[in-house]
Amino acid sequence: MTQSGYNIKCEQLRKNYVNIQQIIPHSMHIFSTDCFTVGGPDIGKKCVFPFTYNKIVHFGCPVDPEDSSKRWCSTRVDGNGNHVAGQGVYGDCSQGCPIHDDK
Questions:
Q1: Is the pTM here over 0.85, yes or no?
Q2: Which domain range does residue 86 map to?
Q3: What's the 3-state SS for 48-70?
Q4: 23-33 per-position pLDDT tens digit
C-alpha cells in the first residue's frame, strides 16, 4: 500500500474510532508487519496502532516532539491503549509506516 493509501486508511480509522473502540477492546491492538522502528531506544520492534499519547489517539506515526524531521511510534501499550511511557518502548518509524497528521 502506498503512503497516501495509509493516510486515507488512517483518516477513515480516526473518524470511526468511537465505533471501533466499542467493538474491539483496547487489548486487541494491531502490530503492523510493514511498520517497525529503525531508530530510538527500541530498534527493530513492530509499531503498535492505535496508541494513545498525551490524550491523542494515533493510528499512524506522529511527528517526534524532540526532532520534527522524524516520526515515532509506540512498541508497547497498556490495557487501555496508552503508550507505556518511561520504559524506552518507542522508536523512529520506518518508511512503511502510516503517518499521523494532526490536521
A1: no
A2: 3-93
A3: EECEEECCEEECCECEECCEEEE
A4: 444 444 555 56
